[in-house]
Every structure is written in structure tokens, then in C-alpha cells.
Amino acid sequence: MASEDVVGKTSATIANIAEEAKIASEGVKAPSRLALLGICKSLAAGGIAGGVSRTAVAPLERLKILLQVQNPHAIKYNGTIQGLKYIWRTEGLRGMFKGNGTNCARIVPNSAVKFFSYEEASKGILWLYKQQPGNEDAELTPLLRLGAGACAGIIAMSATYPMDLVRGRLTVQTDKSPSQYRGIAHALKTVLREEGPRALYKGWLPSVIGVVPYVGLNFAVYESLKDWLVKTRPFGLTEGTDLSVTTKLACGAAAGTVGQTVAYPLDVIRRRMQMVGWKDAASVVTAGGKSGGLEYTGMVDAFRKTVRYEGFRALYKGLVPNSVKVVPSIAIAFVTYEVVKDVLHVEMRISD
């Protein structure tokens, strides 16, 4: 009997241990699944925001690139309105949205990674800041948000840069180009075959340098403006109510204007460097304003030759359509991101 009692107690103990292990395991798995679901929802919200905002301004995006790279001695696009009319007259509706599929294929993952990276970088930077004595109750400051935005921009840009290069070339080519890229995959394969793997990252350095102030300022200005409006409630804003969509759009517009003005010259240089080595880029600008193969040897050389042959103003070619594009694009992206996160029931906000 004694041995049966021992066996019974041992069996009961083993059963209890197994039950506790099962409960503990389920307790670990549930939060992990919830965390993974939250990450997927956040990435989806960022991707949707990028796709919606970029499609809304696709014609202006194409015109901006055409203005950036056109030959100054064979000008076809002479301003925003004239340029859009010319594209419509010569290429029709499809011409207005040429390259947008490639653009969205790049911007959707880029935007998803950018927003998610910003949230994670914000949490990490704030945690490190709080470890310093006297900062235990600190909140995100504009400078910390700038740093988090810079980190997010670098990560997102590096992850999706080959798509940006291909998008630029697809956007620039016309029906009269000697050779045609037939789509994203064909363009990637052609660049790899004819120019090598390194060609997929031409212009990466000015892109990364430019993305630090651009994305950093976008997030810092947008979040800081929202934070200021919530705390001070100027312009008759009611205490205790959420900011309206219109107010958030205004914050996004201000953020886009500041960011793109600071970083725009680097965007021009990046776009020109991306055309280097493309033997069929005869319709775009070259070093010295000559048609044919581009001759920039690096970022500094591209800056120097652009200013020498075309003047300082050349660094801001396409700024007007870009400004008209960036203001609504950034605003729509931020607001869409927050709206989609509301719809998907994701509790965390960028500011949190």
C-alpha cells in the first residue's frame, strides 16, 4: 500500500508539474503571438500609408524626376503646369502614372519599415536617455525624435534602395528611349547583368546623408507640433479632445516642407548618380550638359560639376513640383498611418 501511495503521489506531482508547465508555456506563447500580431499590424499601417500617399501625388513625382535629370540644352519640361500638360499631351494618363507601380513596390515596404523603425528607435533612445541620472521621468524631445527619425530613415532607405534606383530609371524612360525596361524585374536583371551588383546602390551615400535630415525632421516636426498643440491648445482648440484630421494634416504639411527644403539638393545629386552607367540615358543631363553617358565619379564630383556647369540653382531643379507633392504626401502618410492603426486597433501611437 505504501508503495502504491508513493507511486500515486509521484504521478500526481508529475501531472501537476506538467500542467503548470503547459500553463506557463501558453502564457508565454499568447503574449508572443499578440506581440507578433501588433508588429504585423504596425507594418501594414505603415505600408498602406506609403502606398496611398505616393499614389495621390504620382504625376508630380514623375515630373520632379524629369526636371531633375533633363538636359539643360534640350529643355522639354519648363515648370509644373507646363510639364504636366506636356506629359498628358505626349503620353496620356498612363504617362502621368508611369513608374508608380515600381514606386509603390518600393515605397510600401520602405514606409512600413520606416514607421516601425521609428517607433522602435524612439523607445530605445528614450530608454537609454532615462538611464542617465536625473532623466528618469524624461519624455521624447524634438532632438530625440530627430535622432529616432534619422535611424528609421537610414534603415528604410538601405533596405529598399535598389527599388528606388529602378523606379528612377523607369520613370525617366519614354516611348522614344532606345532600349526599354519592361518592368521592375527586367530592370533589376538588366542593371545586374550590364552594370554589376554595385550599380544597384549608386547614389546610396547622398541618399543616406539626405535621409537623415529629411526623415528625421519629418518625424521631429510632426510629433513636436502635435505635442505642442495637445499641451498648449492654441487657436481655440478644445481641451481634452483629440486633434482633428485637418490639424494633423497641417502638422504633416509643415513637417514635409521643412524636411524636403533641407534635403532637396542631395535628392537631385542622388537621382543624377543613379543614371550613371545607363547607356540609354541619352535624354537626361550629363556632366557639362552634354548628352550621352554620365560622367560623375562620386557624390562630391556630382555636386561640383552640377554647380560649375549649371549653377547653384540646378541643385533645386524640380523643387516646385516636389514642394507641391511633398506637402500633401507627407501629411497624407502620417494621417493615413494613424487612421489605419485605429482601424486595426493598434494601441501604440508614434508619440507613445
Secondary structure elements and their pairing?
Layout: H1 2-56, H2 58-69, H3 80-96, H4 100-130, H5 142-172, H6 184-195, H7 204-232, H8 245-274, H9 299-310, H10 319-343
Question: What key attributes describe this structure?
Answer:
MCP_transmembrane, transmembrane
Q: What is the strand content?
A: under 5%
Return the structural class.
mainly alpha
CATH architecture: Alpha/alpha barrel
CATH class call: Mainly Alpha
**Overall pLDDT metric:** 79
Annotated CATH homologous superfamily: Mitochondrial carrier domain
- What is the ordering of alpha helices and beta strands? HHHHHHHHHH
**Residues in helix, %:** over 70%
What best-fitting shape do the alpha-carbon axes yield? Answer: globular
First-residue to last-residue Cα separation: 63 Å
Separate helix tally: 10
Q: Regions with pLDDT < 50 over 5+ consecutive residues?
A: 23-28, 285-293
Radius of gyration using CA atoms only: 26 Å
